[in-house]
Amino acid sequence: MERYADLLRGVDGDLLNPKRFMIMTLLYTLGPMSLRELRRALGLTWGDLDSNVRRLAGKGYVKLWRGLGSGPRVLEVKIALTERGEAEYEKLAARLRELLYSVGKKSA
Q: What is the CATH number for 67?
């Protein structure tokens, strides 16, 4: 059991939060998007999205800027992973793969 916990040591626990993990996963796989698109894709409230995005931005994992919007919106707030965010997400993904592999080997 302790061996499994060791695999997640050194990973930022904030990224294990389900909502932040979903935000990071979408940005990693789909790239930059507007906050409106991100909120709709995840089904979060504006308040929930805001608090989780602020936490990720405070750690330097995401960056925000105003960019051209779609439809009637001239400007929208856009979000993307930073280099640091990409690196932390890849580190977490690698550790999760190791953990799943270890658990799978154990049950086989």
A: 1.10.10.10
